[in-house]
Structure formats: structure tokens, C-alpha cells
Amino acid sequence: MTKTYRQLFVDLVSNVNPMIVVFGMCVLFSVLTFIIPGGEFERKLIDVMGVPREIVVPGSFHAVPSVPQGFAATWTLFMRGALDGAERSFLIMLAAGAITAIIATNAIAAGLHLLITRTQRLGLFFIPITVFAFGLCGATFGMYEEGIPFILVLTPLMLSLGFDSMVAVLILYWSVPIGFAAGITNPYNVLIGQALAGLPAYSGSWFRVISFVVFMSAVSIAIMHYAYAVKKDPRKSLSYDEDKRKRQEQDKHDKNPADYELTGRRAAALALLAAGFGILLVGLIRHDWGFREIASVYFWMGIVIPLAGGLSVTAMIEKNIEGMRSVMIAVVMMSAACAMGFILKDGKILDTMLNFFAGYLAGAPHIVIAFVMFGISALSAAVISSATGTAVVVMPILAPLADVLGFSKQVVVLAFQYATGAFNFWMPWDGIAFTVCTMAGVGFFKYIRHTVKFAVFVYFPVALALLAIAVAIDYR
User: Fold this and answer.
1) Model's pTM, two decimal places?
2) 3-state class of 62 per DSSP?
3) What is the mean pLDDT of residues 421-442?
4) For labeling, which of 283, 300, 348, 435 is most exposed (least CB within 10 Å)?
């Protein structure tokens, strides 16, 4: 009977629309603004790597009247979130449209067919190759949302190798955020964290390289374990029903060998696709491109490559619109998720919560301090949903506290880094995870349930163990 009730609960949770979760969190945070006293730190503008940043002044926390966030104060927050994240939303839409139009040329199918025939012998070992590759993009130049379109390429590739769509989601959305958190030279957490802590840029890189290898190895092993179970028994797949339909569609195409012929036009489309991604990488690494430039590259890729691959102008436009339509709900979800951070900030309780947690650090053993700093940064990152935003809020508090306690600032930055990957890739309100799952055609809450286990039993223990080692060796 217990199993029956448990199954009913699982079925209920699995059928909950993520928008309901976001709405519930907004209601909860709104209630907290009526309960938690208001407070704030004074802030000042400083130059961080050539960019003016507003940071808190340590020791300046003071009580202020709370600003309860009732309906009258929150009814426009969705639109505010939509405008705040407009560039990111259009990036996702344009990228999805471009990749969908490119896929319609069958150039990617032909390329994947050629790739599989050459690499099929690798089997499971193809997974760590892709994990380390995507993780390295996150760890070096801070790729995050920019990696979303790759799910449209990874999904058919994993199905062709005998795995499932969930493996594609795990490869992309475990490796990128965790590689981002490991941060070898990531400007959004390492560089800005060290700048705010007063440390030399990219100092202590040797430990971060070790961290990256450890994290990516753990991710690879976890995904390979799941992929092996799925290949051995497809019924263990978390996307079994969805993939069954996909394979039936693939079988229809498999009957036509022409779909996999690498013609001259398809080869040209693949070459242009590689060039497009090359331009993106150069822009990200050398020219500090933002969403506007990246989205513009996808816009032109969605026009030029499909036409070069053989689509008519009408078909190219229709496929771009089809791709944009497929991620519309995800874009709406991301806009709604922004409202949670606005409620805490506008209600004047975010600084109160940070000051409360930071007050318990004095006198604690160094390993406890490291763990608490990790917890404070992780909770802040889960709410703020921005590594840079979290850095300018928590680092000016934690770094001076390290001086008072005789604690290594390098460990403070490390704790903050790891914290940026603690919750964000598996929270039910994560719009990016929802986008990736939607584009891959897998159940969002199935992904969440599986990823929670990974976070609890793998990510957190590994992160805390590495922090403990850093404290033990007095990493500076």
C-alpha cells in the first residue's frame, strides 16, 4: 500500500507544471517579506576589471523598514522579469530557430551518421569526451546559456549510440554548470571573485585545474553508469516513452538512405555550422561578446546555413519559426523565475538573510567556516541566479570576514565558485534546465529527481571534500 501511495505522489509531482512551482515560490517569498525584518548594507561603486560594480560595504548592515511585497507590489514582476531577461530570451529563441532550420537540411543527420560509423567503437567512452569538452567551455570562458542549442545535436547522437535522450541532457546540463563552477579561468566567478577579494587574477589555478578534473570525472562516471543501465535494459530509461516515439520517427527516415548521404550542399552547411561556432568561440574568448552579439550570430546562421544546405527561403523561415515556437514556454518560465529575486530585494530581506548567516562564522573551526561560506553562497546563488550578481553581494561580506578570522581568501573564492554550481542546475524553477529538457523532449521533473540524487550523493560530497582539502593544505 505504501508503494501505491508513493507512486501516486510521484505521478502527482511529475504532472505538476513548473510554472506552478515558480508561482508557489513567489508566494512563499512574498509571505516572508511580511515576517522577516528589513535590513540592508550600504553599497558603493567600485571598478572591477574595468566595469563599475555596486558592492556592499562590510559592517554597514543596518535595520530599515521592511517593504512587504503584497499583490499591489508584485503584479508587474513578470513583465519586469521579461524585460530584464529579454536578451537571454531572444538568444534562446534565435538559437533554437537556427538549429531547427539547420537540422531540416539533414546536414547534421548526415554528419552524425558519418561520426557514429567512425566512433561507434568508443561506446560509453564517448561520454567522458563530450563531458570534458563541454565542461571545459564552462570552466574557461564561462559558457552557460550559450550551450543550450547543442542539445538539439546531442539528443539524436545519443539515441543513435543506443543510449537515451536523458543521457544527452545530463551530458550538457551537468557538465556545463559544474565545469562553470570548477572555474579554471571563468571570468564570471573566478576572476570577479578574486577581484572583489583583493587576490591576484587567476592566482591558485593549479588547485582549480585539479578540481575541474575531479568534478568532470565524477560527472562522467555517474552518466556512464546510467547510460550503461539504459543500453542494457532500455526500460530503465527515464525517457523511455518519449524515445520510443523518436526512434519510430527515426526508423521512417532510416528507410531512405538519401537522408544520410553527405552531399556537397550538406557538407557546405556543416562547414558553415563549424565556422559559426568558431566565430562564437572567438567572440566569447577574445572580444567579451554578450547575448546581443551571440544571438545575432545565431540569427545569421539560421538564414545562411539552411539556404546553403538546400532549403527554400519559405522553408527556412518556417523552420526558424517552428524552432522558436518550441522554446516559447521555456522563455516564459525564465521570465517568471526572475520574479523571485525581485521580491527578496524589493522586500529588503535579502541582506537581512545574508547578515544572519554570516554572523555565525566568528569563532568556528576553519573547515566549518568554509562549509558555511559555501552554504551562504549557494543559497544566495539559488535566489539571485547569477554568478556575477552573487559575487557582488556575498564576496564583500565574506572576504573581509576572512581577514578578521585569519582565513584564506583563496578558500573563500573557492567556496563561492563551488556554490555557483550547487543548486542552479537542478532547482525546479530553473528556466534553463526546463529549456534543455523541453528541447530534448524529456520529462522535466524526471530530470530533477535524478539530478537531486546526483547533487546530494556526488556533487555536494565532492565539493565539500575538495574544500576540506583546501583548508587542510592552507590553500592560498
Assistant:
1) 0.70
2) strand
3) 84
4) 300
